[in-house]
Design a protein that fits this description.
- The structure holds two protein chains of two kinds.
- In chain A, helix 5 packs antiparallel against helix 8.
- Chain A contains eleven helices and 17 strands.
- Chain A has two domains: about 180 residues, D-Maltodextrin-Binding Protein, domain 2 (3-Layer(aba) Sandwich); about 190 residues, Dipeptide-binding Protein, Domain 3 (Dipeptide-binding Protein, domain 3), CATH 3.10.105.
- In chain A, the strands form four sheets. In chain A, strands 4-5-6-1-7-15-8 form a seven-stranded mixed sheet.
- Chain A is elongated, with a radius of gyration of 23 Å.
- By secondary structure, chain B is of the alpha+beta class.
- Chain B has four domains: about 110 residues, Beta-Lactamase; about 100 residues, Beta-Lactamase (2-Layer Sandwich), CATH 3.30.450; about 80 residues; about 170 residues, Histidine kinase-like ATPase, C-terminal domain (Heat Shock Protein 90, 2-Layer Sandwich).
- In chain B, helix 1 packs antiparallel against helix 8 and helix 9 packs antiparallel against helix 10.
- The chains are: A alpha+beta, B alpha+beta.
Chain lengths: ~400, ~625
């Protein structure tokens, strides 16, 4: 959070370098005012904590907005303490305006208001960013390269979202570990990252990313189609595997299609079926793709959160991870999950944001963090140099 | 059946046959013409379909070539020719290009045939399409010369058939392959421009066996696809252009003629069968209309023909009918009938001849009657003279003897007078008997009918003459009776019948002075009773037979000539008839035929004398 003292510090710092620096340095000085224009894909109809959201995208968007207007979340799920913004306008599912909270204990936000247009498709958000119609939006990872080529400022977080294939507990075809292993071996994870995610992410062999656990390199991500074929030939009769994916997520669909292609090339009969949302367990599918965001930078907390999230689908909590688990124990726990092939990590995907040229001091949030929009200020000079947002 | 009816039916039959043959001929010729026209129409449509198909092939090749020649494709080829190129940037390009060029299938392949971007199967990036880079006959395929071709392709939705074309972009000895195509599916079929009444079906030969679901039309899988199994089976065995007719229902108009066009791939393998179907509804309805028209013409023609035949036969047969009626009148004795000899043809000549004939008959009858009357009177006079002469001569002699005795005053006068008066009385009795017989003939009584058994009559007559058959001093006559036991009784006058049989037996006995056999036979047939009396006497000449029943005609020295005349009169009064057959030196047979129930009014015996048979 920025405070007046910070402004003074910034001003003095600017004064120090003003003689040696160029006029561009004046653009680095935070300024108050302006309206931050935001577009999101979700269409929220209510901010009432008691009203459930329709899908994961809406839940994430709701959490982001709640972080703007509330400062503290109670253990019972309710909120206390007003946040840096307050609701000025609310049109359910379409539009919302949040005005800066002048009395916010952490200091008034730099922008006067945030306007959020809801229900905007990723393609439309990208176009609006390109034409400077908006200042901030989430963009799909596979669109990063195209967006950057078109001049859009892109901010990328650490890859903290796990795309994984999970075999749903209790389904006949998922009961044989050879089936699960054959499918896991058939998947060409690097190709998925390179082509579908356009290299925005990492191939996932384990349940935690390398930047978090430091042990991800110990899990193989290379495909082994030969072994997959050998395993599949041992299974008679060959079951038909139906892979479910979120019908509202094109990226997930592309990954699922690639998995099916990999499986078929290995001789594994696999079909696709779209399912409504990540949380449901459609009875006709044996396995499905899930996307899970790390709840914490800490390996143990993140892993425990994943296990908890997958509990309903896969049933992994037979032997919970101790609170004081050592890195070795975390690795072994992670390895036991991966070796069971009930959860097949596919890729780590970063959160990617598009920014207009006037957005300053944006920093991509880490796991468990929300958008730091209260720290962002808008450069109204119109000729500001583009701020480098990625490390 | 009357002559008119016969003529009418002959005319009608001839007319019906003629009209029917003409109608059938017209129908057959028309049907052949329609079939030929329909065949030409179908051939033209199939040819049109082929041209449309070929045009689509050219179009696909043209579109793929167009993509290869576009600047972005060239830039992609240049980029790929570099040693360290990141091909992942192109992974989503194919879909957009395919959409803009209206292609269902589009793949960009690297120099080694690996997929860089795929529109129809975006997830197959990195995998190879070996068939593109594989050489044919040891040489690289010249895709520019290959044009478009049919191919089975694996997609996310399973195998499909597509019209494919390949174009290459060569940069620095490295090829970028542009593989594009149009899927052969219901959309393709829907896009084909076909005339009304035609439809295009496509069988996708993707499975080892016939699969009904693989037969599609513009709306998707075809109903009752199993009906196409035979023709698809034939195509799978030996691909060739075939025609196949399917009757969807019992209604012939529901039939559909299909031309099967096998579609082969680059290796000449059968990949699909296009079925161009043309509805037979119009043709069948047209043929039915012609048939109905022909039938209507036949019916109207026959009706008109019937009327014309009826009128014509009536007109033609009217003189004939009048002639027949006139002839019937003549047969009934009305010889004065006259026929109107209208017209100058054969019928007119016939009518004139008929009139002439009847006129001559009348004249001849008059002459004959006069001659017969004269002859009869002469015969009567002769017989009367003869009959009267016999008693008159003794009378004259007796009277002369009596006169001589008176004149001589003889003592014997008393004796002579007594003898003479006795002789005279006797001769007068003879004269009275002669007159009585003539009187009897003139006064033949009308028969008094009653139930009579002819056999009994015959037996009583034979019994009456039994003594005479074997009388001493004359040669014996042997009677032979052949009487039918079940002879039905008849209605007749028994006394008159007795007289008939008696006269005939007497006649036979007179014909056998040297003895012989007298055969009497009875029988019945068709409700009539027959009597035959035959002798083995001297027989009669034909001339004698002709005049045998003429009154007062006799061949005997002392006969009156009335016996057989009386017989004939009685038979005629009973509604029967009598005939005689005779052969000189062999014998004579009389045949009497009597009805079981004679007519109420006895027939008047006409003054007609027939040769052998009189009725």
């Amino acid at each position: 959070m920025k405070r007046p003292s910070c402004l003074l510090l910034a001003a003095s710092s600017a004064a120090v370098v003003v003689l040696a620096a160029l006029p561009a340095s004046t653009a680095r000085r935070p300024r108050y005012g302006g309206t931050l224009r935001v577009e999101i894909g979700a269409a929220l109809n209510s901010l009432d904590p008691a009203t459930p959201t329709g899908n994961a995208e809406e839940a994430a968007a709701k959490a982001q907005i709640e972080a703007l207007i509330y400062d503290h979340r109670n253990p019972d799920g309710t909120f206390s303490d007003p946040g840096p913004f307050r609701i000025a306008e609310w049109e359910p599912g379409k539009h919302a305006t949040f005005a800066a909270n002048e009395d916010y204990p952490g200091g008034r936000p730099f922008v006067d208001a945030i306007e959020i247009q809801m229900g905007r498709a990723a393609k439309d958000r990208l176009v609006d960013l390109e034409v400077n119609k908006i200042d901030f939006a989430e963009i799909p990872a596979d669109q990063v390269r195209r967006a950057a080529e078109r001049g859009t400022r892109v901010s990328t977080s650490q890859p903290d979202e796990l795309v994984a294939l999970v075999f749903i507990a209790g389904r006949p075809a998922a009961g044989d570990p050879r089936i699960r292993e054959a499918i896991a071996d058939a998947i060409d994870r690097p190709a998925i990252v390179n082509f579908i995610l356009q290299k925005e992410g990492e191939a996932a062999g384990g349940m935690l990313p390398q930047w978090s656990s430091g042990t991800a390199f110990l899990f193989s991500t290379a495909p082994d189609a030969k072994h997959a074929k050998e395993l599949w030939l041992q299974i008679a009769p060959s079951p038909k595997i139906v892979l479910g994916y979120d019908s509202g997520d094109p990226q997930e669909q592309a990954i699922a299609e690639r998995i099916v292609v990999n499986a078929r090339e290995a001789g594994i009969g696999m079909a696709l079926q779209s399912v409504p949302s990540a949380g449901s367990a459609d009875v006709s599918v044996n396995a499905r793709l899930v996307r899970m965001t790390m709840a914490s930078r800490l390996p143990r907390a993140a892993l425990a959160n994943f296990v908890s999230a997958l509990d309903l689908l896969v049933g992994l909590n037979d032997d919970p991870l101790p609170d004081s688990a050592s890195p070795e124990q975390i690795y072994e726990y992670e390895r036991s999950i991966v070796r069971s092939f009930t959860v097949v990590p596919i890729a780590w995907v970063p959160q990617v944001y598009g920014l207009s040229a006037r957005v300053r001091d944006w920093k991509a949030p880490g796991p468990g963090e929300t958008w730091p929009l209260a720290d962002v200020w808008l450069d109204s000079t119109g000729e500001a140099a583009v701020e480098k947002v990625n490390p | 059946m009357t002559f008119r009816s016969k003529l009418f039916w002959i005319f009608t039959l001839a007319l019906v046959l003629s009209v029917g043959l003409i109608a059938a001929g017209v129908t057959v010729v028309a049907r052949r013409a329609f079939d030929e026209s329909n065949q030409q129409h179908s051939d033209a449509l199939v040819e049109q379909f082929q041209r449309e198909f070929d045009r689509r092939k050219l179009e696909v090749a043209h579109r793929v070539k167009g993509i290869a020649e576009e600047d972005p494709t060239l830039r992609m080829a240049i980029d790929l020719a570099r040693p360290t190129t990141d091909v992942s940037v192109y992974v989503n390009d194919a879909r957009g290009v395919a959409n803009s060029h209206q292609l269902d299938i589009l793949d960009f392949l690297g120099n080694n045939g690996s997929i860089i971007s795929s529109a129809e199967n975006a997830a197959r990036f990195g995998y190879k399409m070996d068939w593109v880079t594989q050489p044919a006959d040891g040489k690289p395929v010249d895709w520019a010369a290959q044009g478009s071709f049919l191919m089975k392709l694996d997609t996310q939705d399973g195998p499909v058939l597509a019209l494919m074309a390949v174009s290459t972009v060569r940069v620095a000895d490295k090829d970028l392959y542009v593989v594009g195509g149009e899927r052969l599916g219901k959309e393709f079929l829907a896009s084909l421009v076909l005339p009304a009444g035609m439809r295009a079906l496509l069988y996708l030969n993707l499975d080892p066996d016939f699969q009904p679901a693989n037969l599609i039309d513009m709306n998707g899988p075809v109903d009752q696809a199993q009906r196409f199994a035979p023709i698809i089976g034939k195509e799978r065995e030996q691909p060739s252009e075939l025609t196949y007719k399917i009757d969807w229902t019992s209604d012939p108009a529901s039939a559909e003629m299909f031309h099967a066009l096998p579609r082969r791939g680059r290796q000449n393998e059968l990949l699909g069968v296009l079925l161009v179907g043309s509805s037979q509804r119009d043709v069948v309805l047209l043929e039915q209309r012609i048939l109905e028209l022909a039938l209507g013409v036949v019916i109207i023609g026959v009706l008109i023909g019937l009327l014309l035949s009826w009128w014509g036969t009536a007109r033609v047969t009217r003189p004939i009918r009048k002639l027949a009626e006139a002839a019937h009148e003549v047969s009934q004795g009305n010889w004065t009938v006259h026929v109107d000899p209208r017209g100058g043809g054969e019928v007119g000549q016939l009518a004139r001849a008929f009139n002439q004939m009847t006129q001559q008959l009348v004249e001849q009858r008059e002459r004959l009657l006069q001659a017969e009357r004269v002859a009869a009177w002469r015969e009567v006079a002769r017989r009367l003279a003869h009959e009267l002469k016999n008693p008159l001569f003794p009378l004259q002699t007796t009277v002369e003897n009596l006169q001589r005795a008176k004149a001589q005053n003889s003592d014997q006068f008393e004796e002579v007078f007594r003898e003479s008066t006795g002789i005279m009385l006797s001769e007068i009795e003879n004269l009275k008997a002669i007159v009585g017989r003539f009187s009897d003939f003139a006064k033949m009584p009308q028969p008094e009918l009653g139930t009579v058994n002819l056999n009994e009559v015959v037996r009583s007559v034979v019994k009456l003459f039994e003594a005479q058959f074997g009388a001493v001093g004359r040669p014996p006559i042997t009677p032979e009776l052949h009487l039918e036991e079940n002879l039905p009784p008849i209605q007749a006058d028994q006394a008159l019948l007795h007289r008939v049989v008696e006269n005939l037996v007497l006649n036979a006995m007179d014909a056998m002075p040297a003895g012989g056999v007298l055969m009497l036979r009875t029988a019945h047939e068709n409700g009539n009773v027959e009597l035959e009396i035959s002798d083995t006497g001297t027989g009669l000449t034909p001339e004698e037979c002709d005049r045998l029943f003429t009154p007062y005609y006799t061949t005997k020295q002392h006969g009156t000539g009335l016996g057989l005349a009386i017989v004939q009169s009685v038979v005629s009064d009973h509604g029967g008839r009598i005939s005689v057959e005779s052969e000189s030196g062999v014998g004579t047979s009389f045949h009497v035929e009597l009805p079981a129930n004679p007519p109420h009014k006895p027939q008047v015996f006409p003054m007609v004398f027939e040769k052998q048979e009189v009725s």
